[in-house]
Specification:
Layout lengths: L1 H11 L1 H25 L9 H19 L3 H13 L7 H4 L2 H6 L6 H12 L2 H7 L8 H16 L4 E3 H8 L4 H13 L3 E6 L4 E7 L9 H63 L1
Antiparallel strand pairs: 1-3, 2-3
Helix pairs in contact: 1-12, 2-12, 3-4, 4-7, 9-11
Protein name: COP9 signalosome complex subunit 7
Family: Belongs to the CSN7/EIF3M family. CSN7 subfamily.
GO cellular component, one term: COP9 signalosome
């Protein structure tokens, strides 16, 4: 009886109802923010450890590249793209001396190479490979892994046939080995459906953000902000409605308690009569 009374009191109390709406607001807003930020900033994603590790490796190269000559930069870039656990390159691209080699007739191919690993896909490599340094086996696997991230971002499933075509792999075995490598490196989350020749994706790690993508990100943030305001307004409206109905609800609760008390009294009376007999 005591617990039942507490439950009814909480259920009809405006503060409790408002609390439910606030919790829902925070939950939905957080999901939206994570969805937006996860595609823009590496350290905001589920696989934060991937980017932390990648950024830690990149810092060593950044120190070396900051004061490096143009010729030294080409060697550093080749090391970076061959580094098996490095998947983010934006900070290196932004270095002033790296920007300089972009306009160098002899060295611009190294800038293009780094740019493809930062933002591009295997298809970009194929289109420009005649004007790029020769790819090692490690570089080929890495650009395929980066392409796999791009192909699986924002979707739930993708067929093996599409992946084979986009990544120019010769067999399902080669493809599944690449996917397993992506799983192992925490680049994507999901499962392989071998019977249906489909990759089911629950998450893909973020890649570097192009400067021209920033306006799109800003618009997404504005949309998220508008949704937060919408939920906030709903919370206030519901709170006002609950407050307006509070007197009626407490009167209803009082009547319920009276009925329960009457039933208990009647039951006690019946038990007493039975005992007297």
């Amino acid at each position: 009886m005591y617990l039942f009374s507490i439950f009814l009191t909480l259920f009809f109390n405006s503060a409790f109802v408002v609390l439910l709406f606030v919790v829902r607001l925070i939950y939905l807003s957080s999901l939206r923010l994570i969805s937006i930020m996860g595609n823009a900033y590496p350290n905001f994603s589920k696989h934060d450890s991937v980017e932390r590790s990648s950024n830690s490796i990149l810092k060593n190269y950044l120190k070396r590249a900051t004061d490096a000559t143009a010729e030294e930069l080409t060697a550093i870039i080749m090391e970076v793209v061959n580094e098996p656990d490095l998947f983010h390159f934006g900070e290196l691209l932004d270095l002033p001396n790296v920007q300089i080699i972009r306009d160098d007739a002899k060295l611009s191919k190294y800038y293009s190479l780094l740019e493809i690993f930062a933002f591009g896909t295997y298809a970009d490599y194929v289109a420009k490979k005649e004007h790029l340094p020769k790819f090692t086996d490690c570089m080929l696997e890495k650009i395929r892994l980066l392409s796999l991230i791009s192909l699986t971002s924002g979707i739930n499933t993708i067929s093996y046939d599409i992946l084979l075509e986009k990544l120019e792999l010769q067999s399902f075995t080669e493809l599944e080995n690449l996917i397993i490598s992506a799983f192992y490196k925490n680049l994507i989350m999901g499962r392989m459906d071998s019977s249906n020749k489909t990759l089911c994706v629950s998450y893909a790690v973020s890649r570097d953000l192009r400067r021209e993508d920033i306006p799109v990100l800003i618009e997404k943030m504005k949309t998220w902000s508008g949704q937060c305001q919408y939920f906030y307004d709903n919370v206030i409206d519901e709170a006002d409605k609950v407050d307006a109905l509070k007197p009626c609800r407490f009167e209803a609760i009082h009547k319920i308690f009276e009925k329960i008390q009457k039933l208990e009294n009647d039951n006690d009376g019946e038990e007493q009569k039975s005992a007297d007999q």
